[in-house]
Design a protein that fits this description.
Helix content: over 70%
Distance between the termini: 50 Å
CATH class of the largest domain: Mainly Alpha
CATH topology of the largest domain: MetI-like fold
Number of strands: 0
Order of helices and strands: HHHHHHHHHHHHHHH
Radius of gyration: 25 Å
Number of domains: 2
Oligomer: single chain
Strand content: under 5%
Largest sheet: none
Shape: globular
Number of helices: 15
Structural class: mainly alpha
């Protein structure tokens, strides 16, 4: 085969590879986009339309209003209470997780003490344990403390976030110049002042990461509140959606969309900081 033939074969292979890659990506995009499109369009149709019309058919805004009225009237406006509960549980637990995870990760990354490797190992083990397997021991512990049905029965377990500790540890261990901390100490800063004045301002990307992952994990957690909370009025919205299923299907679809909005908004607002935090530990210094 001549050099010209070999050279002409390379662009052809590249085009075929690009076409195959594009087809695979398009198939995956369609696989995820079709259910989301159906969910967005579902409130625009009636219950009969959802059963008889095309899944991607478009209804009208009047049906959205009817779905909203049905959803809002369900259980005496209890959907609003569920959203308030979700914000209370999620934001409170995320605030505690931030207050604990970031300093803990900083301490593990910058200090050497007896038992440090053990703490890191236990953190990794806690990350690997399925959350559902912890529900029973958590329930027994909360019951012994008379916290069942209390808001703290959800906030305290949600605040346990070892993944956030490990994220902060990786970030500080790979991006924070040790000389910067030594300079702060030479200037007379205590360890707490060094963390607050030097390390914490440099950790905005990892703070955004911990906030995002903690918020999403807490907001979407279903099994723990379902197992622990006996009163319907104390449900977060993810658990309450199972009760709305008894109402109309368009109302359920609209409630699901509203329940997903906070996660989408948090992602859009913190997207730039998330990218910085994800690549922050890729290179040292």
């Amino acid at each position: 085969m001549t050099r010209r033939a070999v050279t002409s074969a390379h662009p052809a292979r590249r085009r075929v590879a690009l076409a195959v890659r594009g087809a695979v990506l398009l198939a995956f995009a369609g696989f995820f986009a079709v259910p989301l499109t159906w969910l967005v369009l579902a409130p625009t149709k009636t219950g009969d339309d959802l059963l008889n019309r095309s899944p991607l058919a478009v209804g009208n805004l009047h049906n959205v209003w009817l779905a909203w009225r049905s959803m809002d009237a369900f259980g005496g406006h209890i959907f609003r209470r569920w959203m308030e509960n979700s914000f209370l549980y999620t934001l409170s637990a995320t605030a505690i997780a931030l207050a604990v995870a970031v300093p803990a990760g900083y301490g593990l990354a910058t200090t050497r003490f007896r038992g440090r490797k053990l703490v890191l190992s236990l953190t990794l083990i806690a990350m690997l344990i399925p959350a559902s397997s912890l529900v029973l021991p958590i329930y027994l512990e909360l019951d012994a403390m008379n916290l069942i049905g209390n808001a703290f029965s959800i906030i305290l377990p949600f605040a346990f976030f070892p993944f956030g500790v490990y994220l902060a540890y990786i970030y500080y261990a790979t991006t924070l110049p040790p000389g910067l901390l030594d300079a702060a100490r030479v200037d007379g800063c205590s360890e707490l002042q060094t963390f607050v004045r030097v390390a914490l301002p440099l950790a905005k990307p990892v703070v955004a990461l911990v906030f995002f992952f903690s918020f999403v994990a807490d907001w979407t957690n279903f099994f723990l509140p379902y197992a622990i909370l006996p009163d319907q009025k104390e449900f977060p919205v993810q658990v309450g959606l199972t009760d709305i299923f008894q109402s109309s299907r368009p109302a359920l679809a609209l409630a699901t969309l509203i329940a997903a909005l906070p996660v989408a908004i948090v992602f859009v607002v913190s997207q730039r900081a998330l990218v910085r935090g994800l690549v922050g530990g890729a290179t040292k210094g």
